[in-house]
Structure formats: structure tokens, C-alpha cells
Amino acid sequence: MKLNYYLLPFLMLLLGCENKTAETKKTVTVVDAPIAVDHVLEEEPVKEKLSNNTFNVDYFSGKAEIATYTLRKARYSEENHQGEAVLIFVTEPFLIEEQVKADSPTPENSVKVLKMNRIDRFKTGLYDYSQFTSVFTPVEKYDAMYPLKITMGSQDWCGQSFTQVNNKGGFNFEQKSYFESEGDSSFHMDYVVMEDNLMNIARLSTDLLPVGDFTVFPSISFLRSSHVEMKNYEALGSLDSLESGLFYVYEIPELRRSVRFFLSSEFDNRIMGWEESYPTVSDGKVRTSIYQLKGVNDLPYWDLNKKRDSSFRKEFNMIY
């Protein structure tokens, strides 16, 4: 896959950092996972993907890594829509059965997860969009390749939609939407790589990033925005070293979708920026959304809720 001119700012940024290379061309084997849509969810023996691996997430403990990105969103027109994205990474205790944050965690009832909150906001002419995705990835006991929970909420002036995915011996999906073609639905799916989990995987260990041919369930916000079928697709991934980090690329040919991550070799593979190319809904032409890092810091944001704390927003160059 050839790099396009959008990549140059990211590559220059990464090349200016401290030299630290990593191995490339790692292989992850993924089991193909057929999907059964719109059948009634039934109780069945839970067969979670367990793991003996434990990842060091001290970097994300006690404080959250907050990163803001300038967003140029491809949606309706030739010119990308201006916006902003925020990534928040933090660890927290997570109840295994209920799959919510634990107020009184114990080793028996909970597991530590790396939580990512991703918020995309952008304007399209008069009205604006907000898309909020949360991913809860286990860092112990369970296989990090398969998140314990994903939620995605999308709001615009037409209305809103919401999708929740729970890891229950596979993935249980619940979708609510104001579109007649989508409506309210539920279905179960066997374990498969979830595109929404790939950023968390990159932060835990690039050894886990799928390389070569693999099967993926695409980003829920992408499926929602593009109004394409919610099912598994075939994908192809590659991982290459730069002087100061890694460049991870994957594409989903059937959807004409490709994504490129730029990972720093420092700060536990911090995401310096990324690009997403896909057909836009207005005319089907493939265009590219561009995310460029503009501010980052580690803060206990949950304690910074006083009026005086609004000064921190300037540090992140926030516009929303």
C-alpha cells in the first residue's frame, strides 16, 4: 500500500522523535466468525476467551491519558468538515458478570480493563455530529483481543442511535436507531477481531495487532454513518517500523475502507495521529478523514470539575 501525501506531517513528526525501532511482520491467527442476525438471544453456557497474559498498564493507572486531535472529517462534500476528536485512556475495575464499572471490586467479581473513550465532533454546514465510542479491554484473566464491552452513541440533528456489545461467550449486540432501515435489533456473533478494539490493542502490545489476512467486525460508528450491513468482513493488515515508532495499516477491501495509525515508540505507543479512508455517503467517492494530535497530558480529569479547572481546556486547544 502506497503512502499518500496526507501522511507526510505524521511521518515528519515521528521521524523527529527518539530512535527506537520494533520488529515487523508479526502474525496473529484469527478464527473466522460467521454472524447470525436478528435472532432472539438465548441463555447459553458462557465460554469466554481466557488468557494467562497480564499487561503492564501502570502508565494508565491513577490518571487518564487525554489526547485531543484536530479533525478534518470526510462526510458530505469535497472539502472535509472541521472538527475535533478526543481519546481518553484509563484503567478501571470492571465487574465480570454485570460488565459495568465496579464500585466495590474484589479479585473474584472483577477484572482490570483498559478503557478508551473516543469522541468525534464535527460540523456539516448548519448542523453538527457527535459520536462517542467506549471500549473496555481486559488486561488480565481474559483475552485482550476480545473486549468485554463496547458502546457507541451517535447524535445529530435528525436523532440518535445507540449500540452495545457484551462479551458473553461471543458477542451479544443490541442496537437502537431512529432509522427505519436499522430500527431496534439484537444478534449474537462468534468471537472475531473488533475494529473498535484495535487502538486499545496497540496501546497494550503491538505484538497483538493483526497482520496479514484476518476477519474483522468494522467500527460501529463507521457502519452506523455509512449505513452498511453489520457483519464480519475480510481484512488485511501490515505493521512497519519508523525511526521513532510504528506505522500500522489495515484495509477492508469489500468496504473500500483503509485505516493508518501512527504510533510513537514512547509513552506506551501513544497514538500520534491516524487517517481513515472510505466512500462518503454523498456520492460514494473515497475520501480521507485526518486526525492530527494537538494536545496531550495525563490528568485525573474526574477531579477537575471546578470553574477554575476550565483553564485546562486551553492546554488541549479544545474547541468543543
Structure description:
This protein is mostly beta strands. Helices cover 8% and strands 44% of the residues. It contains four helices and 16 strands. It has a 16-stranded mixed β-sheet with strand order 1-9-8-7-6-5-4-3-2-16-15-14-13-12-11-10, sandwiched between helices. It is globular and about 50 Å long. The N terminus is likely disordered.
Task: Give the topology, please.
Layout (H helix, E strand, L loop, with lengths): L7 H8 L19 E2 L27 E10 L7 E15 L14 E15 L2 E12 L10 E8 L2 E9 L3 E7 L7 E5 L3 E2 L3 H7 L7 E6 L2 H7 L6 E10 L2 E8 L4 E8 L6 E9 L6 E14 L12 H4 L5
Parallel strand pairs: 10-11
Antiparallel strand pairs: 1-9, 2-3, 2-16, 3-4, 4-5, 5-6, 6-7, 7-8, 8-9, 11-12, 12-13, 13-14, 14-15, 15-16
- When the domains are counted, the total is 1
- Report the biggest beta sheet as strand number plus sense, adding barrel if it closes: 16 strands, mixed
The mean pLDDT is 87
Low-confidence stretches: 1-6, 14-45
Q: Roughly how many Å apart are the termini?
A: 35 Å
Signal peptide: 1-22
Protein name: Septum formation inhibitor Maf
Keywords: Signal
Concise description?
It contains four helices and 16 strands. The protein has helices at residues 8-15, 198-204, 220-226, 312-315; strands at residues 35-36, 64-73, 81-95, 110-124, 127-138, 149-156, 159-167, 171-177, 185-189, 193-194, 212-217, 233-242, 245-252, 257-264, 271-279, 286-299. A hairpin with a 4-residue loop joins strand 13 (245-252) and strand 14 (257-264).
